[in-house]
Amino acid sequence: MRCGMGCNGGFPTGAWSFFHAHGLTTEDRYPYVFPPCEHHTNGTHYKPCGKSQPTPKCQRAAEKKPRYHGKSTYSVAPNKIERELFENGPVEAAFTVFADFLTYKSGVYKHTAGEQLGGHAIKIMGYGVEGGEKYWLVANSWNTDWGDAGTFKIARGSDECGIESSVLLPAMLYRSPCCSK
Fold first, then answer.
1. Which has fewest Cβ within 10 Å: 20, 92, 148, 149?
2. Residue 4 pLDDT exceeds 50
């Protein structure tokens, strides 16, 4: 079973399903082995990423099984994202990346030019308004040289690049609507 396919156009639900079925290793028993690298940037902190490397073999003794049953993920409706962030913290989402996104540095991103490059999973951490434009505050995984110290703002309320239609939570963090505040 593949674990979400990573940088090969993977899907967050695939990664959460893998975790749900197989568990994860703890970092102290299986530390992240790939050093940070310059991803879509020409920064000064890291070396260029280079070719993809195979994932190291997992040590079965270090696995930590999840403690829940049923679905592995739950979708968050676009009109519930702000409430989810306010009450429970960050959520995972995916969106379509276009060529103009690679050069983002600041402000509220809206796709204006360039071809579609693929999908990308990210973490939505918050929301706000800048210069009259509503935005989502998002953490990217590329590195701190990219964008605004590794984060970006993307237009909120218009499903920019599909970001609002692909928000999800792992089942272990899901709160049933009947029981939330």
1. 149
2. no
Q: Which domains does the chain have, with CATH numbers?
A: 73-173 (3.90.70.10)
Q: Model's pTM, two decimal places?
A: 0.73
Instruction: Let me know: does 98 contact 117? Beta carbons within 8 Å.
Output: yes
Q: Please count the CA atoms within 13 angstroms of the CA of 78 that sit on its side-chain side.
A: 11
Separation CA 127–CA 134 (nearest Å): 8
d(Cα 130, Cα 87) in Å, to the nearest integer? 22
- Cα separation, 95 vs 12, in Å, equals 11
At 57, is the pLDDT very low, low, confident or very high (cuts 50, 70, 90)? Answer: low
Higher pLDDT, 19 or 131: 131
DSSP code of residue 85: H
Picking from 59, 64, 66, the residue whose alpha carbon sits closest to that of residue 30 is 59
Q: Tell me the mean pLDDT in the region 118-129.
A: 93
**Nearest of 149, 45, 159 to residue 106 by alpha carbon:** 149
Q: How far is CA 66 from CA 16, 73, 87, 139, 178, in A?
A: 11, 13, 23, 25, 23
Instruction: Give me the count of residues in the chain.
Output: 181
Q: Write down the pLDDT at residue 105.
A: 94
